[in-house]
Amino acid sequence: MREDRGIAIGIAAVAALFLAALPFLLPTTIWIVLTVYAIVKASGSAPVGADPAAVVLSIVGIVTFFTLAIAGAVALLGRAMTPKKKRRRDGDEVAVADA
User: Fold this and answer.
1) Residue among 20, 17, 4 at smallest CA distance from 77
2) Domain, as residue range, for 36
3) Using a CB cutoff of 8 Å and minimum separation of 24, what contacts does 75-84 make?
4) pLDDT, position 2
5) Less packed terminus of the chain by CB within 10 Å, N or C?
């Protein structure tokens, strides 16, 4: 399966770069979301204190988003590595075996 080496290196590079950037992405994104939440909270007629459930759910949402983003990227890149199916004359599909 030497033909899949480039795709495998691409998946490894995307995963490594994403995981290396994650310590910078998470705090920055959390800070932006909480700043927007504070601005919206201050401009509205809501109670003075921040809702702890909203803060925790926003952080959980951010972490979930980044987890699904890396999983989706790996799934899309890995889809190209699945072996192609070959049709027989009678219409049955059989996976091609690499020797």
Assistant:
1) 4
2) 2-95
3) 77/7, 77/10, 77/11, 77/14, 78/7, 78/11, 80/4, 80/7, 81/4, 81/7, 81/8
4) 65
5) C
Model pLDDT, residue 24:
95
Alpha carbon distance, N-terminus to C-terminus of the chain: 9
| Residue position matching structure tokens 């020797």 | 99
Which residues of 2-95 form beta strands (DSSP E)? 85-87, 93-95
As for how many domains the chain has, the answer is: 1
pLDDT digits (tens, 9 = 90+) for 68-79: 998 988 888 777
Residues making up the chain, counted from first to last: 99
Q: Measured between alpha carbons, how far is 25 from 16 in angstroms, rounded to an integer?
A: 14
Angle between helices 52-78 and 5-43 (to 10 degrees): 160
Percent of the chain with pLDDT over 90: 36
